[in-house]
Amino acid sequence: MVNFGQAAVGIIVLLVVAVGFLYLFYSRTNAVGKTGYGALAMLSIVSIMIPIFWIRETGFEASQKDGQEVIAITSGMQLYAQYCTFQCYAVRNSKLVDVKYNGYTIDALNQLSDQDLQRVVESGVYNPKVPAPTTAGAIPMSQTYGGALDANQTQYMIQFIRSASPAYLKKQGYGSSVKNGFGGLLDYVQATYPTQYQTAVNLGTNGQFGTPVDDTKSKTVALDMVNPPAGAACTPSCYSPINITVKVGTVITWTNKTSQAHTVTALSGDDPTASPKPAPQIFDSGNDPAKYVKTGGTYSYTVTMAAYNLNPDHRIYYFCRIHPAMLAELVITK
Questions:
Q1: In terms of DSSP bridges, do strands 243-247 and 213-214 run parallel, antiparallel, or are they unpaired?
Q2: For a surface tag, which of 179, 223, 279, 318 has the fewest beta carbons within 10 Å of its beta carbon?
Q3: What sign for the dihedral angle of Cα 150, 155, 158, 164?
Q4: With 0-12 CB in 10 A as exposed, 13-18 as middle and 19+ as buried, what is 296?
Q5: What residues does 238 pair with on adjacent strands?
Q6: Nearest to 87, CA basis, from 260, 309, 327
Q7: pLDDT tens digits for the chain (334 residues)?
Q8: Cβ-based neighbour number of residue 272 at 10 Å
């Protein structure tokens, strides 16, 4: 951008010098003296104008750089809306929440080196700690690896992700016109992909596990560990039902109906797709292989007030320590 402060100072200095030389010029009656002072005045004016033009040119180049980055970020935002469709974000209270790309949070991606981020976007590396989509083509990647993104689009996607990092934008020297591209995502998705927008609203309302089964009238509830149904993200097994609503005091019993051992372990936090952090103080069938829930085995837990108070929305997520892609949810009421 043009530095108006520097430009103003330069113009003032130019005027002062010009006035000074005009005074000297007209105060001299000698023609030779006037000629000499005139030449010196012209040389001085030219010398002062050079840095002024340089400042202006530098500002123009910075403006061009910012403009190109804004175009790249906008293009990346449109590509993100088009290709990142599997639980990439949710809408809660008309705000964008739980934003991810290939299962990674945007903050986590911006901690990566440029080379590693390039690898994630280009080759479609999916976060191994969370369930990946089972639908073919649901993971965006470059054409080199069988995806839809060409080389330019891959770079746009990277620049869009980087735009969420104020530290990165500052390091690159961008001006105030270069902003976080995610700020315009919701309006664009709502206008361009209304069905996708509604899916994000539903995800924000009910979470990734859908509408919970209402078991609030039951004092005991039976859940199973089963082989995943077609299209399910949980692997190699699933808890079923995957989401229930229960009251404090309800006794829940999980039965393992698969051929593999599993655990039933509560998670802390309100984002089960982030790095899983067990909350064994709430419930945990055990981290010792001797306590794993083996085929035909069961694990029971009585819902407590501690579970109700763990998260502000009174939801608890749980998983299998052995198979972290096995995730489920409890909604707790009093």
A1: parallel
A2: 179
A3: negative
A4: exposed
A5: 226
A6: 327
A7: 445 555 565 566 666 666 655 555 555 555 555 555 556 656 666 666 666 656 555 555 667 888 999 999 999 999 999 999 888 998 988 899 889 999 899 999 999 999 999 999 999 999 887 777 777 678 999 999 999 999 999 999 999 999 999 999 999 989 889 999 999 999 999 999 999 999 888 888 777 787 899 999 999 999 999 998 876 778 899 999 999 999 999 999 999 999 999 999 999 987 776 667 899 999 999 999 999 999 999 999 999 999 999 998 899 999 999 998 899 999 999 9
A8: 21
CA angle 203, 271, 281 (to 5 degrees): 135
CA count, 13 A, side-chain hemisphere, 41: 18
Its pTM surpasses 0.70: no
Q: Are strands 95-97 and 90-92 parallel, antiparallel or unpaired?
A: antiparallel
Nearest to 281 by CA among 260, 256, 309, 255: 309
**CA distances from residue 164 to 68, 181, 185, 200, 254 in whole angstroms, order as listed:** 17, 7, 12, 20, 41
C-alpha pair distances (Å), 114 with each of 44, 99, 103, 110, 111: 47, 20, 18, 9, 9
Measured at the alpha carbon of residue 110, what is the angle toward residues 64 and 208, in degrees to the nearest 5? Answer: 120
> Cα separation of 289 and 15, whole Å?
85
Beta-carbon contacts of 211 under 8 Å, excluding residues fewer than 6 positions away, are: 243
- Strands, sheet with 327-333, edge to edge from the N-terminal-most edge strand: 213-214, 243-247, 327-333, 315-319, 265-267
Q: SS3 for 242?
A: coil
Half-sphere exposure of 297 (CA within 13 A, CB side): 14
Taking the alpha carbons of 113, 114, 116, 120 in that order, is the dihedral positive or negative?
positive
